[in-house]
């Protein structure tokens, strides 16, 4: 094996009260796809930020091509040959694809940009990477997957030594992921060293050659992907055995109370979003919404909360028909909604964890009747313990928490209002296996306490694991309702989605 | 992928649509004016549009740069007034040569732009507030120079004001028109064929991304305000040529006319989308409304304001419609 293109030796980084990285070694070889694995808060992001110069390490050294470097910022990293593509695409939506590839380094003659040359070279590059897009199209008219590929094309064209992909697949559907992987493999074969971060184990096993596992800021080990079983990997990541995950499989099928439905939707639909559908959710029942990206999952959930107004049908909450014209109306009837995009639609990053948690309860109480300090502390403390939010400091700004813990804060916010129906839109997206299992467990235990849950997720395995009843959506239409049983498999649901039949 | 290197057919993009709407409206309004008032359709009326609004055109072009970055510059009118006052004072009282005064005045405008841009970028102050401060500062400085209106008697100015460049039989241009056209050409070239210009668009699209893509965000943003300052100063000088006088009360509200012209020209206030051609059309449209009211004769000039208000509202709604259809993929 040739020498490592990038090496980190004994790198440590601490923040006030947190040891983010402790004496971590890391190696990246040319021509490999290397997965960086770990739970939220294990230090993956910190490691990447040290590599790209966003943070400077407290101790240890970074070597690039055998020489010690000190990276001063993303800019400097790029000139050294380390490029990063983030989950949120960092390109300009208002410019064309071609311009996004070349902006800042446009070929020019006598000070004037040569557009013809830009278009020609961009088209060449895109063809070489197999990205099928018109270089003259505005970036915001392209799908997220294409945007990400354009970002990769740009990064690689600038400097092709080390490419860091930070959760590039979180928002992509299966085909798009395949497309991304094709490009990644092509780059690997060209000798680029790729660092890949993803929470999807399947994807990691599909595409990576080696992996490095971190836990609590410390290095657990470096492994050949082919020689490490999934069970062992999860064990390394969590420091636990898988038994806690398996327990969920034991579902109490009879626990459901066949009482009056909490929510009964009758022909509810919205033009352009989702075709009219019927839906019943009973107390203590978990109803999963399954379907591909863009199949209308989120749209259906939003209608149930009044975030969008239905243009047909009626919704009955607790037996009485309620016009859901605004989220406020839904909240009044005991419906809670955790949106898909926790950063932009839910969590207020500048407020503390405690303030975020009491927000909805305070709003429900009315702002003129503030909760007493003691009551607040008691509630926040109780839910932070119950949901195991770490670090357990209610006064920490919410932005400092890892993704999984932010998600738990949002859950706590709604649980504290003691909803009758909880709508969760992709609650486990972008968070690690351990936190995922905890949130799944929490959903199950909520249901046992009589809360009705509408659970939206892109991961069929997850939907199957915790739902009593599964609603399958395709092309913005509810196509099937299946009672969950041991015989129902992800493949079976995929077949329904593919064929549109229950046979 | 098959159109490699070959220009595809001309596509009408959404961002072009706004400019086309403005153009259509301008043509329609001009045609209506020509039908109702026979004298309206002459070439001189078109040229007069440029003559009467030359200073606004230059200022609005500078404003376009700032708005494209997603900012706003409220100081332009005050900086223009200050430029006029400085010209009048330095030429009339201190008798400095024109060759020194004019560059100095332009430099003051650039300096104002730099100061505001610096504060906006490095202290992360809202452009609205920073340029509001600049506006008060410049307006106040006018009155430090003189409380009264000063007339400009310098021969360079009086001659300039009378210069006519014949264009055909009955049509005459003024140097102001030429300057306006040159500024437009330079601005167009800068925005579309220089890295600075493209960075202006990039910042308006997403400044965080622009930073991570390695674009010089700080330099570009400050330069945009410097361009606006330069254009304001130049606009102030052109206005002084036009009126042969200067006053601290000149060009009050010009910043709002400039913003209106830019928005009517199809540039998004959120930045990143728009064309300097649109700004020219926007200024022309405002001028045409004024001209029609002048031909009409009996309506108060405040009807111009009402017309601008209605137009502005329509265009912002139009942008909203175009914008919302874009967000859906």
TrEMBL record, chain A:
Cellular localisation: Cell membrane
InterPro entries: AAA+_ATPase (IPR003593), ABC_carbohydrate_import_ATPase (IPR050107), ABC_transporter-like_ATP-bd (IPR003439), ABC_transporter-like_CS (IPR017871), P-loop_NTPase (IPR027417)
Annotated TM spans: none
Keywords associated with the record: ATP-binding, Cell membrane, Membrane, Nucleotide-binding, Repeat, Translocase, Transport
Stored PROSITE patterns: ABC_TRANSPORTER_1, ABC_TRANSPORTER_2
Residue ranges constituting the ABC transporter domain according to the UniProt record: 6-241, 257-500
Organism taxonomic ancestry: Bacteria, Bacillati, Actinomycetota, Actinomycetes, Streptosporangiales
This protein's name: Sugar ABC transporter ATP-binding protein
Primary localization class, coarse: membrane
Keyword Repeat: yes
Pfam families, A to Z: ABC_tran (PF00005)
Gene Ontology CC entries for this record: plasma membrane
Natural source organism: Planotetraspora phitsanulokensis
PANTHER family in the cross-refs: CARBOHYDRATE TRANSPORT ATP-BINDING PROTEIN MG119-RELATED, GALACTOFURANOSE TRANSPORTER ATP-BINDING PROTEIN YTFR
Keyword GTP-binding: no
Example of a GO MF term: ATP hydrolysis activity
Automatic annotation (TrEMBL), chain B:
Pfam families found in the cross-reference section: BPD_transp_2
Segments crossing the lipid bilayer: 17-37, 49-68, 75-94, 100-120, 132-152, 172-192, 224-244, 256-282, 302-322
Membrane topology: Multi-pass membrane protein
Major subcellular site: membrane
Entry GO CC: plasma membrane
Key word Phosphoprotein present: no
Protein name: Sugar ABC transporter permease
Protein's cellular compartments: Cell membrane
Keywords per UniProt: Cell membrane, Membrane, Transmembrane, Transmembrane helix
Presence of keyword Zinc-finger: no
Molecular function, one GO term: transmembrane transporter activity
